[in-house]
User: What shape does this take?
Amino acid sequence: MKRLRALRASEFVRFIVTGGCAACVNILVRIPLGLVMSYSASIIVAYLIGMTTAFLLAKLFVFQKSERASHAEFARFAIVNLVALLQVWLVSLGLKDRVFPWFGFTWHAELVAHAIGVASPVVTSYYGHKLFTFKAKNVSV
Assistant: This one.
């Protein structure tokens, strides 16, 4: 039982590390996108790029093979990430447009709001991908 918990913790740590790498891609891509499109649109486009990065890293380094074709896994990954995208978008915009102005916070408000938004769905995404995206076909929960 102890070993199973250690394996799960290790998997969660790998998810955090690979997700952190994908989050960095997301944030770094959003900055130049913000020069050519609105903040709101740049969050969505950057999220899609980060999501693709996250899928590849999670598939390679985090979860065991699910026995599904990669395109089926990616479709499931996208479903979980649609929920996460909504969360990222709402948190990012809510902080930038509502919370930060209320506190008078102006130091890199868009970047800080976006970074917090990107980090917000970490736990729900982990379980969504573990129990849905990369879950083995013949295993029931």
